[in-house]
Amino acid sequence: MIHHKLLLLFITATCASVLASAHAADSCVALGHLRIDDVEITKSAMMPAGTAVPPAYPGAPTSGPLPEHCRVDGVINRRKGADGEEFGISFALALPDAAAWNGDFIMQGGGGGNGVVAYPIGASYSGDKSALGRGFAVASTDTGHKAKTGPFDFSFMRDQQAYLDFAFLANAEVAGVAKKIIAQYYAKSAAYSYFVGCSTGGREGMILSQRYPSVFNGIVSGDPAMRTGLSNLAISKWIPAAYNQAAPKDESGKPLIDKFLTDGDRKVFMDALMKQCDGKDGVVDGMISDPTSCDFDPAALACKPGQSDVCIAPEKVAAIKKAFAGPKNSYGTQVYPGFLYDAGIAETGSVPGLLALGVNGLFGPYPTVTEIDVDNEALHASDPLVEPASTNLSTFSARGGKFLFFHGDSDPWFSPLDTLGYYRSLAATNGGAEKVSEWSRMFLVPGMRHCGGGPALDQFDMLGAVVNWVEKGTAPAFIIATGKAFPGRSRPLCAYPKHAHYSGHGATNDASNFTCQ
What we know:
The protein contains 11 helices and 16 strands. By secondary structure, it is an alpha/beta fold. The strands form 4 sheets. Strands 1-2-3-5-4-6-7-10-11 form a 9-stranded mixed sheet, sandwiched between helices. Helix 3 links the parallel strand 6 and strand 7. It is globular. The N and C termini lie far apart (66 Å). The model is unreliable at 12-19 (pLDDT under 50).
């Protein structure tokens, strides 16, 4: 009799599961007939559990097998634009099973020039599980155009509306549509909404807090591409010109920037840097926990007359100091911040660190000139449509919004000091630094390059931190970080202005033995 009852319970549960799955599939397909002004739903289909999604780019975090979910694709404001090209804000939305949905919505930011609808899983900076795997409804968008020649195709900018969509309009538009679809599918609205992005996605998060303060409850902005014109001036022109002044020349007198420093030069430099600043956090471990307080001066490495070992030619040292100090105009005014001396600046690869430049930069060959007209370059480097410069976030913060920033200390594209400068500037407009810390925190990531990589602990759960702050009122004093560069190691990423410091007791690979000072 007991066996019969158990069998009956099993059959009942199985039937209920099948019926629920069938109902979910019907509800998902029905979204294809949903009517929203200026929106075309182009696809709505159930995606089976175990669906695997490749990394968005080489080295990007993988999501692991996904749970069963309804995927909805659509286009907002489809139109013909410049030269007859078709434009429109394409988007995708992943909706977990109703029983698995945590009641929240997250939007994942883009990268580069966008132009691609990435799979909406929210895999970055969400810990061991993707946002979708954690029960969030997740949206993504191409911000209004299709990339044709790669991730840095900005040809769409010739169309004014496409440029406006990319600059600031598209993410808020998609968020509004996604919320309507979520309410339809679950028969209730999302309780909280979040945005997480890095690089271009980091800039997008800042734009949303400034221009659309009521759309998201929590925002995470990493390594934001906040002033691309001026950062390009620094990394693509100012730094190469400084290096060219001391680089060897070919037979025609052209500087050979890839031979500016030898491997030996870089080793001498990094050995001295790490000796000076690595141990300031209480342990020598290949990481500089507080590079803003690193008192390393490359001038100490300049060869003296008759010296040739364990030193660097004085003209090379002068060039490095000029490069890392950042561009200044003819009046001596800093137009873009300098860069930090950090553990990852000599890294090689497709995007080399600032001590390992090759012949080509991100957007083509480096200039062979030795001087740059910074006054003229800076005059044309700013674009108010794209740049998230406003510091008045009074509405965002008054509504209970929470904002987390993070930036890799060895980022070779965007200076962490620029993001830090913006964060500091929030104080003047929003009641002081202490008041700002009640709704925003900044985290510097030692050794990390642009959005990840480098001799760093670059895996951390920023999403969980902002959710806990928004929904539970728990402000993050620190966030635990791990990473492939240092297997078995964990460290706290401390909220600025504090940094991790070894307590002097216990294993140095265990975050619990570090305090924020």
